Amino acid sequence: MRCIIIEDQPPAQRILKKYIADYGSLELIGTFTDAIQALEFLKHDDVDLMFLDVHLPKLSGIDFLKALDNPPAVILTTAFPDFALESYDLNVVDYLLKPFSFLRFIKGVSKIEERKSAEQSSKVLEPIYIKSGHEYHKVEIDKILYIHSDRDYTELQTSTIKYLSSESLKYWESYLLEHKFVRVHKSYLVNGNEIVKVKSTTLELSDRYIVPIGRVYKDNVNNLLNNK
User: Fold this and answer.
1) Domain holding 222: CATH number?
2) Exposure of 137 by Cβ count < 10 A (0-12 exposed, 13-18 middle, 19+ buried)?
3) What would the 3-class secondary structure string for 139-150 be?
4) Same domain, residue pair 137 and 210
5) Are residues 19 and 82 in the same domain?
6) What pLDDT, in 10s, does the model give residues 135-154?
7) Can you list the pairs that 196-204 forms with residues at least 24 positions away whose Cβ atoms lie under 8 Å?
């Protein structure tokens, strides 16, 4: 997760930076001493999580949060417990009371990961409509086994039928990224949920479809399997 720190006290910044580095799956992309600086940053950068101090110069953390239309996940950090109730009204994930331990930090971040996991598992896969010639075909995303690029068009293979699309493989890779589709070859995109066997140079999918693994795409396959 991409995160930022909004904290005006250097000692508190150092602790958060160390905890973020030790946690491993967090990427610190910015540190700010006041909310105005952070506000400008959020206008052009994607952020998954903010560690936000309540008492800041110029604009308090609470007022800053109220001013955001679509804030990322927020963990408040403060030495004062007074704002705990108000923070939960603002849908804050957690409230860390300074000084907090690394274990307490882990518990706070874990709440965000649990929330993301729950949102992902409850997400309904809407069908897509594929234009083939002058017709549109309704296709369920989770029924697609793989997508193969063949020069000027792509083939979307389900267990029962193959659909031809004028969209590029790069288009489908971007469109289906959130649905566990992964590029495994310069000409193939596969549904990660349909992989049943992995060999050194090939993948076996449901219904015994075999797809090649390109040398430069092996890391994509390993990352998918490690996150299953």
Assistant:
1) 2.40.50.1020
2) middle
3) ECHHHEEEEEEE
4) yes
5) yes
6) 888 899 989 999 999 878 89
7) 198/225
